[in-house]
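Good morning C.,

I know you're traveling, so I'll keep this short. The sequence:
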Amino acid sequence: MIRIFKTFGGYIEIPRLANGCWINVNQPSTEEIQKLSLEFRLPDDIIKDILDIDERPRIEFDDKWLLVILRIPVENSNNGIPFQTVPLGVFITENYTLTLCVQDNDILPIEQLSPFREQYPQITDNINFILRLFLRSGNTYLKYLKQINQLTGLIEQDLEKSIKNRELNKLLKMEKCLVYFITSIKANEIVLAKLRNSKRVTSEINEELLEDAIIENKQALEMAQIYSDIQSGMMDAFASVISNNLNVVMKQLTVISIVLMIPTLISSLFGMNVPNFFEDSKTGFLVICIFSLAMSALGVLWLRNKQWH
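The tokens, ready to paste straight into the viewer:
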């Protein structure tokens, strides 16, 4: 979907391309990709790079345009992984600024007008617009990290009593989310540093905004690394817990088998076709049953005394 706004991060939508406008594109169709190439003069190789789900963050300068690609977090329902990261491209020319993402996201939601209206009513230039994208991306990383922590807490409660690998697999998927986050945030930090130190950036950078973006990304990176370390140790611990729970179940089944074996053995002995002093007795069956139950009860008491239950 393509939406065109009058200014950076603005909320006044316009029907066609105008000088100084901002174009926000999410989940483009084949026809919209052709429109980006033909009408907006966006190079085909740049379109392919931004729409590549594995594209790495980078900054690229040309005489007529500037390209910045960062990786942003998005919600995901595939393969049970709740979150992943995708590239968000910012293509800047003298006439317009275009943002392109392969998936709808919370950084620049396609259905929401003016994602910066409440916090940032004035966006004066494209470089500060990019910095606000990095800042908003860091905030979104932190929000999703808190959700991952909450989901991990719910999985922990199930793992304590589990004897299957299902919960451990869920924890592994949480770990994959954290790996995606850590890799993407580190790459975003490199792009931020290049943007800060580049001599080809002519507009004045808002240092306060830049520091906020750097601090937010560092905080997200540190939190993701802490959660990842905790989950790595947790997975090892809970793997042992699952193994121990399974051993307890096998022990209980073994005890039950031993107790059931006692009456089976007694009935087998007295069921042989040999003289056993009870073949002509009217009370023989009752005596054998009582004897079997008594021996089973003694076996249970003995096992409990040995604390094998």
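Safe travels,
E.
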